[in-house]
Each structure stands twice: as structure tokens, then as C-alpha cells.
């Protein structure tokens, strides 16, 4: 039977998902779409739209909620209500997941309705399903990645086209690789959200406060630092790292000097990459587009495929309980 | 309830799988192991062993068959019998799968018991589950990969240590990266088996004959070709390619000149890599170890995880029926 989807939001990723779903043979269709403003002219049947998210979440004819809005607070409320109504949920809201990891873990453990969010991390790279399937039964010792396409794009353009950071940022915005408010990208906060989610799935780590995590903006660097790196045949990249040492997980996001031997050396522009070290598999590298309507929409499509096949995340036993010490600073 | 596994074979990969399973929290355990020769001293409980595969396949107390032997013909018989007895099967036998694709497709479509074989392609890289989940609902346009660790190791050593092909082969054998009979590796046939399996999962392509596929051994190259490549800053690598053009799939395995812009340029030694182009996601690269006891055992562990969670391959509708034209030569 065709599953009815309530789609919350109709921005870039939601449109990509809508298009991919309508071309696919998955037994599911978008039945309603919740948006903020119904006055806007839309390219699809105007009758699909509503401004009342509550309506979708409680409607017994809606089987699955796909939530793709920016607002983390509104996202949390919608996801919570939908799950409590027994509806499976797919979301891409990294801030909502990362800032509510304890609650998310309870949802994963206590509720029948699954919650998936592949598109929240590294755009098109199917890293969460890989962590939950391939890496679930081996120890992960380290994850190191380029998780923010905007800042990587800016650093690439500064190096290759000798632009200043401001010029590179303007170019990124012009080409759609940075938000109109790029502060989350530049500060490393966006990458940190993703790293916190990866760390939850790789280690079972429940990060509840970001205060002690080293987080350094790409703007903290002097111009001459870039010249020095280039002279040595090295590059500066904003790297997110989660390392397991003696059962403690260390997280950091900071600009780093990488040399040609580094698996992340060749990752340029808006691409993302994740390098993982597993005790059984050895090192692996996954690269792909970190954002975009269809690339990120494809990750939402995978979640839908998995939902329809009864898949849910099987999280490792959390290491970090209320009684445990906070995350170590590095 | 703990699932009982009948393990067929106790070679390098089977031992890796046995070790990883015994350390894991998966509700499954190896109940019997079928080997050729019970006289050999084993490092685990001698009572687990039998030489009668039939016994495991028909035993109502065995829930799952994990088949990890080299012999493709024996593998086929065991897998067929197990599936017909309603037992889910995990195998790593690429030759058996690739040479019996039509039968495998019927098993996938007609039988209740699932058949998974992640470890048959690219060792530790979880590419088949990725093709069946992330890539299942978008068009794949090309797969290009380094799928044979032995030949890649030989080519790396020839270039970096200026060895002849014979010397590099001996080094590969000494370090456990090549079989005592390396002809399948060197000829490209091993990579071709893997490419045929990838092509089935990426395109739904049922390759039934290998006669018209371009297959070129790495031994066909003159020594001076290597010097020429080096002078141009290029490398020679054995590349397996499956390309979709106007609804036809073209397969080939051959040594190719790759330059520094090529995503496969940096894949050295026994590593494998797969570069995929998907219509929605754009290009992606997956790299990892192509062989080894624990890396390949980890892929078997993933299959077991998926089996226990009710996963099975959802293959695209096959393109290539009996009435269809054979695969185009290139």
C-alpha cells in the first residue's frame, strides 16, 4: 500500500526530495506539505499545501513525517509530536539532533516509531547507515572529516584564486554554497553539530554540552599562514575530528595544516569527506557532495527506503551518562 | 533468540568472521563448521567441526548458512540447497555469484530466504549495501574502480621500487597479497567477477556471458610503458569500468593511464576504491582495504547484522533478458 508522507517545509532539500520521490518506484507519495506562507506561487498542486504542521502530525491518513525545515526549535516540537503519535520521522535538522542528543537517544530506545536523519550529516554521503550497519560491530577508533562544504569552498578559493576571505565568502554565496548568514559555517559550529551526531553513531557518545569542545573559526588565521602553507606544499582545511582514547571521546573542529599524504588533502570546494578508522576494517574514506537539492534529497530518499524496509538505528550502549565526567578538552 | 550459524569453510576470511562474531553482541553464534580435513590441528573447539556440508544445510537446528570456501562449484551447490531449505545464506564467493547471475536473480526474486554477499566485492568496502540502499532510487551512470588488491599492489611496487613484474609478484605473495596461483588476479578476471556483481546491483544488468567483455591482463604491457607514464607524472592502474550509455551497459577491465586529477590516482598497494556517478548524488568515492581476514570478515559481519534485521537486496528490474541483445563489446 502506498505510504502517505506529510512533508514539513518546501525549501531546497524538500524540493529535491519531492522530485526524486515522484520519479521513483517507492510505494510512497507526498500527501500534504506544510509551509510558512501559502501566498507564494508554487510549481506543484496548490492543494497539497497547508500552514498547519499540527494537522499533518495528527492526521491518521499520514503515515510518515519528513521534516526539512531550518528552525531547530520548531523541528523538535514537530518530531516529538509525530513520534509520540507513532509516526516514523525522517529529518535533516542537524542542530535539532545534536542539541537534543539525550532525548534523541530516548526516542531511539523507547519508541516504536523510528527516527532517521542521514541527510543531517555530510549531505550525499550515506555515512549514518554505514556506521549503523558496517561499523556497528567493530570498534571505531577515529573519525576525521571535512563536514562543512561552505568553509571548504572558501578555503579552496582563497588558495587557488588568491582571494581574501571576504571575497571567497561572497563568491560562495553567489554560487549558492553558503547561507546568507554564514556564521555557523565559518565558525565551525555547523561541522560540530555533524561531528556530535557522528560521534553518537560511531561510539554511542551522548554529548550534552558543547562548552568544552575545541571549536576554532577559519577566520582566526592570519593571511601569511596561507602563504606559509603553500610554500611547504601543504593546505589549510577545517577538519572535524572525533578520537577515542582510553574510552574517552575527544571532539574538535579547527583549521589544520594537511600535507599531501593526508587522505583529506584532495577534498576541494563544496565537497565533503569522512575518513574512518575501524578496528576490523582498517581505514576507509568516503567522499561526495556535502550539500545541494538532489544530493541531499538522495539521502532523504535512502532514509525513506530504509524506513519502508523496517530499518532503524541500532545505537551502541551510550558511554556518557549523567554520572560520567564531561568530554575532555584537548 | 540466538541464531545458530552453520559455517562452511575455515580459511582466512572465515577465521576473521569467527573472531569478530565471538567478540560482538549480535544474537548469533557459530554452531558447526564444515571443513575438508578434520586431521588439522585447530585453534578452537574440535567438536564444532564436521566434513559433511549436507549435514549443516539440512540440520533444522541451523538457522543461517555462512559459506566462505573457494570452490565455486561446491559453493553453488551448498548455497542452492540451503536456500531451498529456507535458510538465509551469506557468501563471499564472487566467482559463484558472477557466473550464475541469472540463477542468483531468481533466488532473489523467488525465494523467501535472503542471499547476501557483501564480502564478494572490494573486501571491506560496504558497496553492495550502499548500492541497494543509497543508490537504489537514482540512476547510476558509471562505476569505475580498483577492485583487485593484488594487481594494484604489484603495479605500485613496480613503480615505486622499480621492480620487474615477476619480482613484484613474488613480493606480493611473500606478504600475503596474492594467491599462490595469481592468474585470476593478474589477468583481470577476479576484478571482472566483481564488476559483473556491481553492474547487477547498480543497473539490474544480468551478465550471462563474459566472452564479449574487454579483459586485459597487466602483463600485456611493455616495460617502457611504465617509464613513459612516470615521465608524464601519470600512473598505470588496472581499472574496472561499467558505463551506462543509452540503456546499454559496457563493461571492461584493463590497465589504464591515470593522471593526478583522477580520483583513483592515489589508491596504492592492496587498497581498493570505487568511484560512482549517480544522477542525484553526483560523484562519490569509497576507498578501503580490498582483502584480509578482519576487513573482509567485517563485511560478512555486516551481512549478518542486515540478515538479523530482515534486510534483503531489492534488485532493479533486470534489463538483460534472454531475448535482449548481448552486452556490447567496446
TrEMBL record, chains A, B:
GO biological process terms on file: methionine biosynthetic process; threonine biosynthetic process
Annotated active site: 194 (proton donor)
Record-linked Pfam families: Homoserine_dh, NAD_binding_3
UniProt catalytic activity: L-homoserine + NADP(+) = L-aspartate 4-semialdehyde + NADPH + H(+)
Signal peptide per UniProt: none
Top-level EC class: oxidoreductase
Binding-site positions, L-homoserine: 179
A GO molecular function held by the record: homoserine dehydrogenase activity
This protein's pathway: Amino-acid biosynthesis; L-methionine biosynthesis via de novo pathway; L-homoserine from L-aspartate: step 3/3; Amino-acid biosynthesis; L-threonine biosynthesis; L-threonine from L-aspartate: step 3/5
Enzyme Commission no: 1.1.1.3
Residue ranges of every copy of the Aspartate/homoserine dehydrogenase NAD-binding domain listed in the record: 9-106
Domain Homoserine dehydrogenase catalytic: 126-304
Residues annotated for NADPH binding in this entry: 94
Transmembrane segments: none
Keywords noted in UniProt: Amino-acid biosynthesis, Methionine biosynthesis, NADP, Oxidoreductase, Threonine biosynthesis
PANTHER family: HOMOSERINE DEHYDROGENASE
Annotated family: Belongs to the homoserine dehydrogenase family.
Protein name: Homoserine dehydrogenase
Species in which this protein is naturally found: Marinoscillum furvescens DSM 4134
Amino acid at each position: 500500500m502506498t505510504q502517505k508522507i506529510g512533508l514539513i517545509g518546501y525549501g531546497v532539500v524538500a524540493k529535491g526530495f519531492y522530485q526524486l520521490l515522484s520519479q521513483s518506484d517507492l510505494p510512497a507519495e507526498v500527501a500534504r506539505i506544510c509551509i510558512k506562507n501559502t501566498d507564494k506561487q508554487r510549481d506543484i498542486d496548490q492543494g497539497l499545501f497547508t500552514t498547519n504542521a499540527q494537522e499533518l502530525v495528527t492526521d491518521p491518513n499520514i503515515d510518515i513525517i519528513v521534516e526539512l525545515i531550518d528552525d531547530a526549535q520548531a523541528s523538535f516540537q514537530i518530531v516529538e509530536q509525530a513520534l509520540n503519535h507513532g509516526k516514523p520521522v525522517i529529518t535533516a535538522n542537524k542542530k535539532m539532533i545534536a542539541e537534543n542528543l539525550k532525548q534523541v537517544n530516548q526516542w531511539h530506545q523507547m519508541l516504536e516509531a523510528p527516527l532517521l536523519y542521514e541527510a543531517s550529516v555530510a549531505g550525499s554521503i550515506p555515512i549514518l547507515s554505514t556506521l549503523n550497519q558496517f561499523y556497528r560491530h567493530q570498534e571505531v577508533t577515529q573519525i576525521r572529516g571535512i563536514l562543512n562544504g561552505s568553509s571548504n569552498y572558501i578555503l579552496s578559493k582563497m588558495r587557488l584564486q588568491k582571494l581574501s576571505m571576504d571575497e571567497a565568502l561572497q563568491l560562495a554565496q553567489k554560487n549558492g554554497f553558503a547561507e546568507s548568514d554564514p556564521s555557523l559555517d565559518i565558525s565551525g559550529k555547523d561541522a560540530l553539530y555533524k561531528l556530535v551526531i557522528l560521534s553518537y553513531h560511531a561510539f554511542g557518545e551522548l554529548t550534552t554540552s558543547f562548552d568544552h569542545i575545541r571549536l576554532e573559526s577559519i577566520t582566526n588565521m592570519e593571511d601569511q599562514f596561507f602563504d606559509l602553507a603553500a610554500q611547504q606544499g601543504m593546505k589549510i582545511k577545517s577538519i572535524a575530528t572525533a578520537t577515542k582514547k582510553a574510552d574517552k571521546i575527544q571532539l574538535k573542529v579547527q583549521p589544520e595544516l594537511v600535507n599531501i599524504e593526508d587522505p583529506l588533502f584532495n577534498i576541494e570546494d563544496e565537497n565533503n569527506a569522512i575518513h574512518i578508522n575501524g578496528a576490523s576494517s582498517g581505514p576507509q574514506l568516503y567522499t561526495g557532495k556535502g550539500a545541494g537539492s538532489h544530493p541531499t534529497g538522495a539521502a532523504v530518499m535512502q532514509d525513506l527506503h530504509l524506513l519502508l524496509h523496517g530499518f532503524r538505528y541500532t545505537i551502541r550502549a551510550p558511554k556518557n551518562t549523567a554520572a560520567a565526567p564531561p568530554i575532555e578538552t584537548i
